Amino acid sequence: MVAPASPAAKPNPVRFFGRYELRQLLAKGSATMAWLAFDPRLDQEVMLTMPRVQPADATALEHWLRDARMAARLNHPNLAHVVEVGAQDHWPFVAVDRALGITLGEWLAKNTVAAPADMVPWICQLLEGLAFAHEAGVPHLDMQLHSVLLDERGSVRLMALAGAGDSARVQRDAVRARSNERTMAMHPDELRARRAAAARDLLACGLLLHHLLTGQAPLDQPDTTLAMLRMAPQGREMVRLPWSTPLPIPEALRAIANRSTSSQERLRYQNARTLLGALAGWLDAQAQDGGGPLALLVDRLRSVGHLPALPGLANRVARVTGLESQRTDEIADQVLDDMALSFELLRTLNSAQVQGTQIQGNGPVLTLRRIISLIGVNGVRLAANTLRAWPGPLNDVQAAALQVTLDRVRLAGHAAQALRPAGYDAQVVYLITMLQNLGRLMLRYHFADEAEQIQQLMKPMPANAETGVPEQPGLNETAAAFAVLGVDIEALGAVVARQWGLGDDVMHMARRLPVDAPVRKPDSDAEVLRQTASAANEAVDVVTTMSGARAVTAINQIALRYARALNVNARDVNDAVQAAREALRKGTPMPVSGRTVAPDTPAEAEPVPAEK
């Protein structure tokens, strides 16, 4: 018996939105939805973005359309060209050409997670378009996976600016602010609204970055608007990259991504170009040919030098080099306090003209008196003449900040001299301590604005007794540098040291010991010098950033870390810092002899003798 034929399935009825044939709902969020549609008039597929809720009345509809048309006039390679802005049955919409690409949501549905270096450029392009829109006073306010288009060539475009429908007031405030910029200051309410809109868009970008890197929606919530409601200040949930991800995420990129969604609002990115700069810096640093902040630093070394000379250098050099009876070590003591000249002498020694002399010696030359004896008094004068006068291109505020950093490095250098075991040369340990701060000095001189951002990110937020909010810690220095520059401060120092031609042995001593790593028994003189300089730098970091019981506790911890390696205790560390402060105040060199240590000092190698 033949079974009766089943009735033929009825084809899905065609749905129309005005003249548009709706083919597929691409995505929807709490504020907007995106449809794939066909426009018979243009004979092309388009994507329609419209609000989830109709405007309340004719006035609200007119505001929506006005905002969308204003946004549609923006012309940027990373903003999707708008085909039409209109309304159908009181439903406003924005149409863009489907040929521009697929949405990020569609891409994630079809692909596994790509390598971070492949996806970060998408966010950079997104930020380029967003920054342009923000600077024109147009926020997005509903950045979603379906707001971002990606084509086959990897080009990214942001669509549906102002499509959420609740940006009218913010945009009108911004437009009015722009029209008044030349005649009056921006009203505080307008400024706050503009910043709040930008911060919201930036937080959404951070959530999209997390989603791309992990392949999972943050908080298991693909709608960025709903995810943001669960984060500070409305909620208490945190969004941080997990340590286990489909593909490894480099530490610098992890710091950038985590800052973008920090639980502390003050630590998040507030400007699209700031986040763009951090991501672009990371990308450039990953490139084989270099780039980003490191390449920019090399260029600036050529144009403005490594550091500016302290005021009055020419007179000091003329005075100490003009006397026939002046000894080399006396000249060296006078020169040592000017870091710019000290570094220039070190660079000169490693230049092609004297490289042969250095190779014939017994290892690297790390005392100024030996450098001066090699290049001569005239070499000192020539080196001083090549330096840029203080404060170089810095303004007064930036110059003051650089001076604070210079004083901290000098303090650390004197502390290292006081901490060094007997028999180790004072100038050697001082120079190594300075080299361990080379990245910090380059940051303050060549990236003054970024240095201030990093400093602000490192500051803790004091506890608020009224609200019961405890003290909130800032970022550590490495994370803050990654979050601003995309590279760490050590990398800045390393690229300069390579430009100077310093060898691997010196480069090793110039790297500080990681503060979270155990300090092992030194097996060479170089390691003793590295550990002594690291201990002094850590101690100065403590005494210049902490006070009271916290500083005491931190100094005790440093002493415990280095107790076995350097045979020091908390009193030794405190005494070294106090002696350094006195030497810095008086401007006198430290004693030639080092700290006497007990016979059980773990340094097994023979100390470097003081040069005569």
Topology of helices and strands:
Layout lengths: L14 E3 L2 E9 L3 E8 L4 E8 L6 H15 L9 E7 L2 E7 L4 E2 H7 L5 H20 L12 E3 L5 E3 L9 H13 L7 H27 L9 H6 L21 H10 L11 H15 L5 H13 L8 H9 L6 H9 L2 H11 L5 H5 L8 H19 L9 H24 L6 H10 L2 H9 L1 H11 L18 H9 L3 H11 L4 H6 L15 H21 L2 H19 L3 H17 L26
Antiparallel strand pairs: 1-2, 2-3, 3-4, 4-6, 5-6, 7-8, 8-9
What would you say about this model in short?
The protein contains 24 helices and nine strands.
Overall outline = elongated
How many H/I helical runs?
Answer: 24
* Derived structural class: alpha+beta
**Low-confidence residue ranges:** 167-184, 357-361, 597-612
The Rg value, from CA coordinates, equals: 31 Å
pLDDT averaged residue by residue: 86
Indicate the percent of residues in helices: 40-55%
Number of domains: 4
Strand ordering within the main sheet: 1-2-3-4-6-5
Tell me about the largest β-sheet.
6 strands, antiparallel
Q: What's the count of strands?
A: 9
Distance between the termini: 115 Å
Give a description of the structure:
With 612 residues, the protein is an alpha+beta fold. The chain has four domains: 15-99, Phosphorylase Kinase, domain 1 (2-Layer Sandwich), CATH 3.30.200.20; 110-291, Transferase(Phosphotransferase) domain 1 (Transferase(Phosphotransferase), domain 1), CATH 1.10.510.10; 309-387, no CATH class; 403-459 and 474-612, no CATH class. Helices cover 52% and strands 8% of the residues. It has 24 helices and nine strands. It has helices spanning 58-72, 104-110, 116-135, 168-180, 188-214, 224-229, 251-260, 272-286, 292-304, 313-321, 328-336, 339-349, 355-359, 368-386, 396-419, 426-435, 438-446, 448-458, 477-485, 489-499, 504-509, 525-545, 548-566, 570-586; strands spanning 15-17, 20-28, 32-39, 44-51, 82-88, 91-97, 102-103, 148-150, 156-158. The strands form two sheets. The protein has a six-stranded antiparallel β-sheet with strand order 1-2-3-4-6-5, covered by helices on one side. Strand 8 (148-150) and strand 9 form a beta hairpin. The chain starts with 14 loop residues before the first strand and ends in a 26-residue tail after the last helix. The model is unreliable at 167-184, 357-361 and 597-612 (pLDDT under 50).
